[in-house]
Amino acid sequence: MSAVVHIDPKDAAPIWRQIEDGVRRLVASGALAPGAPVPSVRELARELRINPATVAKGYQRLVDAGVLLVRRGEGTFVADNPPPTTATERREELAAAARRFAALAATLGAARSETVNSIEKAWDEFAAARKGRGQ
Amino acid sequence: MNGILVVAARELIERRNAFLAAAVASVLPFVAPLAPWLRSPQVGEVRGAAALVMAAGLSCGLALVYGSSTIGRDLAERRLGFYFNRPLSPLAIWGGKFLAGVVLVWVTPLIVGAPTWLATGPGFLTKPMELRYLLPVLGLMAVPAALMVLAHAVGIILRDRSVWLVLDLVALAVVAVLVLWALGALFDIGAEKAVQVSEWLLLGAALTAVLVSGAVQVVSGRLDPRRGHRALSLVLWGVLLCVSAGLVAFAGWVRVTPLSAVRGVTAAGIAPSGPWLPVEARARHGLGAEMVWLLDSASGRNVRLGASAHLGWPQFSGDGRHAAWVETTYSGSHAAWLEPLLGEPAKATSEVVTLDLREGDLRPRRTTLIFPELESNVALSTSGQRLALVHEGMLSVFDLSNDALLASVRQPTDSSKFRLRFLGDDALWLSRAEENPAGPDRWKLLFYKLDLTGRRLVETGRVDDICRLGDVRVDASGRRMLVGMSGADDECTWSEREIGSAALLRTFERQPGWEEWGARFLGDGRVVVAETREGRGRLRVWSEPGLPLRDVDLGRTSQLSLLGELQPGTLLIERARSSPRYRYYVLWLPLTVDLGSGEVKLLEQGLSPIGPFVRAQGGPNAAPGDLHTSLFFSADGALILRDPTTGARRTLVPVP
Amino acid sequence: MNDTPTPVRLEGLNVRYGAVKAVRDLSLSVWAGSVYALLGRNGSGKSSLVRCLLGQQRAASGQIHLLGEDAWRRRTRLMRRVGVVPEEPDAPLAMTARQLAAFCSHLYPTWDDASVAERLSRFAVPRGVPFGRLSKGQKGQLMLTLALGHRPELLVLDDPTIGLDVVARREFYEELVAELADRGATVLITTHDLAAVEGIATHVGILKDGELLVDEGLEPLKARFRTLRFGPERAPAAGELRGLGALAVCKTAWGLEAVVPRFDEAVAARLQAEGDVAVAVEAMSLEEIFSAVVGNGAGGEA
What we know:
The structure holds three protein chains of three kinds. Chain B has 13 helices and 32 strands. Chain B is of the alpha+beta class. In chain B, a hairpin with a 7-residue loop joins strand 2 and strand 3. The longest helix of chain B has 31 residues. Chain C has a six-stranded mixed β-sheet, with helices on both faces. In chain C, strands 2-1-4-5 form a four-stranded antiparallel β-sheet, covered by helices on one side. In chain C, strands 12-13-11-14 form a four-stranded antiparallel β-sheet.
């Protein structure tokens, strides 16, 4: 999971936030299926070489949000029914990502239609992949 | 405690190669006798010597290397932090390293020597407590340990090249100066035992100071070399300065001992007339220091002349109003006590000092009479105006009013051991020993007269082959004297001579087998002779014309001393008798002898004779009842004056 | 929380070498369970501070409390609860790992032989090789193992990864993190490896010429530092920069760059109001923050 949850020191968000967002993204994208095990706090801290307390904070927020749950003696797992993202969160995330994408497209000199086309194409591929995984 | 052991164990493990080296070295003494230059039939001795040398050498070498590196190098290489990052107290760190060092330097010589000792046999182990076996062993143990501690301190000081090094050097110089002064001062006054004790004390103090300061360096300095050096220096020099200052104070205190505080009189003298006594006594706590005072037995006033090691015995004028003595200085007097180390002592110079006893302030006058080599004590004339002495083979007479030479006469080159006395102001007698190639020295007595215009001393008479039996005795008139003549059987025979011409007046025949102890004139002109034979003593009284009048038997006697007449006709003598139990222990007793009745009585209980200790200055015969018959030691050792008529005692010099 | 004393508390620390002041009137505290990264250029006073903290050097003045007690006087006892990894591995060169572990085991009542042995095996540190002949990485791991062997409450790490290669450094921090996860010790670490410590530290102190210019939590520190990049069309006036409290301003190939230590929403709003896309606001890594603070000026108040 370390390859996927990436800690960026230059990211404005604190590390626990980055972990939280990373896990959320993995769950949302289906890379982490409901009920799948996630690395323990100790393991993840060790792999990423970050303070376990930080990891614990991120995990705690995810547990509080219902994304993860802890089974005593067994470990930490993705919740069976992770809550979807709220509408506000979704809107903010999309807007932020869209801004970045639009800036990139503008600097490349792409036209509006080309930009929108590439988005639609990417979405279709992604949806097909999810369907393939039975989600 | 645990920490010390852990650190010590660790240090020893790291240096285990030293023990290996010792094991290898232990074999070498067996090889040594094979070396061509050491070939000796005493294989055992060569082996033993080789083992000893190697053991000592290895031990001391290890001590130096270990001492300087164990903390110093770790500190410099920043390796000491390893210990300080752990729960080890600084004392545990230092203590553990010190303990390891001690084990190292004590065990390695044992390893080196073990095979040799085993091969030689366990001889000395059967008498381990004898000092001559114990001392070298203790030395072998103490020296490397001391070297180790010293190497640590020096290493710390030198590795930290800071300003404190200057302080160290200055302090070292100051301590050295103080110690040398103090030891020299003690040696000056003859306190040799005090010097020895002080040297051991200083050594102990120095080693303790180095040891403690080394520990303080670790405790206080920790990882800071400068701070450690500072702590070490302050403790080390603080202790040493205190000790050496204390020593200086002690030496000074001993030197100013007043007569009331002496620890026992060792010798006393009596002036020819007058109440003055020269007294030699032990300085307080001086451990062997002896000093000389002049004491007025009438008033108790006294003046301290100095250390008796430097002084010639004071001499008095006939009228008892002047005193003179010789002060000998060694150029650089401290050099004298370094003699064992440096060899020949420095040059000696003798200076004549006089004192007018009539003056109130009693201040000695240093004359200009200074000689490199004096061969006799000084002698004062009756009035105290003139002084005679023998120097560089010359008998010279000086005028003390201006220190000018009045007359002199050369003495034979083979003569020595001069004694001289004035007879009045213009004549003197001199006795000397002359070399005799055929046997022992021959002693002569000569009379001289002063020839002022000719500036020389003229011999007026001489007596050959006299006995060395104390001073010559002069009678009350001053015209006749008693001289012992040396006979064929080496015994003395008394003869009466005319003063000046040395003409023989009469001889007091000695019966064979009798040993002479003394003779004196009685107030009425008769002569008394003290002699012993086969453990029995007697007084033989000779009448005026020269016939033996009577003998007084003194019983079992080993030695005799005639003191004087208590009253006309009663002689005070001192008789020594060997103790029946202890062969070399003599009991001296003061006895009165009534020459008329022949009665011999003990003078009094609780009196020790001064006789053997008195260096009475001969001269006009002592008058009955004067100091010669009043000066005693009390039973506890105080110098007392006993009134001959009443028997009342007055303490002159008390015991502590 | 109020009962247990603060693991490290320095007040008014002054350290002098002759006339030179290595540490000036410094006060800092390390809270229990935190990881305090003390940063500073060479010669900024870090080592002096650490030595005084560990009771190995006498400060000129100031109070030094280690686990609530005076560090100089109680050092011997306190070291039972403190693990130290020094800058230079200072174990005696002739001692093997086995001997070192045995030596230490006698000194600490809480020594854990099993974990020490396990760690040494895990890092393949040979037991019988003298310390002097181990590789740098092995030395570092051994020193850390010895420091952790008695389960200390406080770890003081003085530039522990200096000179180690990338792999050794990673292993070191992994081990440290595992220890934190298992026991939650307090850590004071001085280092030049800012990137590595960025993930682990909870608090940061930046030392310059003996003075503590920054002393705060890592999160708030990173939250308030931003780099503003002005495009060539949007050159800010000097007054504007001053108003922003810019720390370091420099011209780059892209335009102007300014480090702002007191970035907050108001500043962001003002910039957005200009409606510029030519002002980029970037968060800064710890390295960048450090360079800005130490390069030329104070860190600004938090």
